[in-house]
Amino acid sequence: MSLIVQKYGGSSVADAESIKRVAKRIVQTRKAGNEVVVVVSAMGDTTDELLDLAGQVTPLPEPRELDMLLTAGERISMALLAMTIKGMGVDARSFTGSQAGMITDARHGAARIVDVTPVRLREALDAGAIAIVAGFQGFSRETMDITTLGRGGSDTTAVALAAALGAEVCEIYTDVDGVFTADPRVVTKATKIERITSEEMLELAAAGSKVLYIRAVEYARRHGVTIHVRSSFSNSPGTYVYNPKDGETVEEPIIAGVAADLNEAKITIVDVPDIPGKAAEIFTLVATTGANIDMIVQNVSAAATGRTDISFTLPKAEGLRVMQALETQKDRIGFSTLQFDDQIGKLALVGAGMRTNAGVSAKLFTALYEAGINIEMISTSEIRISVVTRADTINDAVRVVHTAFGLDGEQDAVVYAGTGR
Ligand code: ADP
Ligand code: ASP
Ligand code: MG
């Protein structure tokens, strides 16, 4: 008997009808002779709505209480799904993250998994039941409190349980048919990818393709879990995210896909003295804030002044904290002003075949130039090129780059549900 983990995202369980539809698919999988563990997200946009609600009662909600609030969303969907399946005459039991043995550290809102002990899930499976688990939540042994893994974290719950239970596959059900060469909500001619290496998927997820959460991909890569991303609204096969075995040669497309991220901001530190040690001083200070820095650019210094500008990007949500930290050290570092720009967009082109192909950057820059889109920052890795543009040009940028690299498909991609929020 195979064990299959299935994760259903918010848009797949948005209302009573959807829950009934998903329940049928789960029961079919069980009746086909598999053991089934299901991970559910909160219904529709519940998590965003709860966050809005918290924001209406206080500007800075206490992280512990925010986790208590948000985990309620997943608890609603798990119980409704379990009772639907029971109502169909099949045994099912729901479990919170804590009951399912998702042990994390104590960082509210961004907890890391430290141990997975799915004893109660194993018992339920042995008794012939379907186990249904609330996604994105855990429990800290240190503080005895409920935690969350961060937005999109149900994907990680599913992969972690698949690893701990030795599942054959971890199926991630969503509102599109798989991983596409670009977000189908932005590029209608995006093409579904049949198989993608975890290395490329990691880059796409890191660059903003929220179809899979980056930490889930990392976890799967480390523990050798195969992920199958597919639609809960159709029976089409989706995308397999796999880890090539040692020595396995993979036919790598030059470009796997294009991703965009509108959640970053840019900080520019103006007139930094161009002497050794200044960058070290600045980024040591930034590191103490815990912010996740991405691109860094230092201009050539003006010969007359011996001063330079340093810019870097970081998640918008961390902007205020970092600006405040830099402001307190203004005199010591010796810069003149700080600029904060949250109207940027970041585009990333990803592909393992880039390693062995010259001319990819030239083609990317030409496509943007021909569309009249200005590039503000550039960074590259072995299998990725990223550029920063104005936020309001990012969707056009994704479309022209997608076309320039010949990724446009014959048919329009289908988006079955969801609000894209
Ligand atoms: P779920 O609620 O199932 O977790 P998400 O909204 O988190 O779903 O992720 C699915 C969405 O990810 C799709 O509706 C699509 O708009 C977006 N997306 C972004 N990039 C891609 C991509 N490369 N391939 C497929 N979907 C993508
Ligand atoms: N409901 C949570 C969120 O929207 C977790 C998830 O769906 O993965 O972020
Ligand atoms: Mg998601």
Assign the structural class, choosing from mainly alpha, mainly beta, alpha/beta, alpha+beta, or little secondary structure.
Answer: alpha/beta
Apparent shape: globular
Kindly report the name of the CATH homologous superfamily of the domain at 3-248. Acetylglutamate kinase-like
CATH topology name of the domain at 3-248, in short, is Carbamate kinase
Low-confidence stretches: none
List the ligand species. adenosine-5'-diphosphate, aspartic acid, magnesium ion
Helix content estimate = 25-40%
Give the overall average pLDDT: 94
CATH class call of the domain at 3-248:
Alpha Beta
Beta strand count? 20
Can you walk me through this structure?
The chain is α/β, with parallel strands linked by helices and 421 residues long. It has a domain at 3-248: Carbamate kinase. Helices cover 33% and strands 25% of the residues. A hairpin with an 8-residue loop joins strand 15 (296-298) and strand 16. The structure holds adenosine-5'-diphosphate, aspartic acid and magnesium ion.
Helix-strand blueprint:
Elements: E1 3-8, H1 16-31, E2 35-40, H2 46-57, H3 63-87, E3 92-95, E4 102-104, E5 113-116, H4 119-126, E6 130-134, E7 137-140, E8 146-148, H5 154-165, E9 169-174, E10 195-197, H6 198-206, H7 214-223, E11 227-231, E12 239-242, E13 257-261, E14 264-273, H8 278-288, E15 296-298, E16 307-315, H9 319-328, H10 330-333, E17 337-341, E18 344-350, H11 360-370, E19 377-381, E20 384-390, H12 394-404
Parallel strand pairs: 1-2, 1-9, 2-6, 3-6, 4-7, 9-11, 10-12
Antiparallel strand pairs: 4-5, 7-8, 11-12, 13-18, 14-16, 14-17, 15-16, 18-20, 19-20
Helix pairs in contact: 1-3, 2-3, 5-7, 6-7, 11-12
The structure holds adenosine-5'-diphosphate, aspartic acid and magnesium ion.
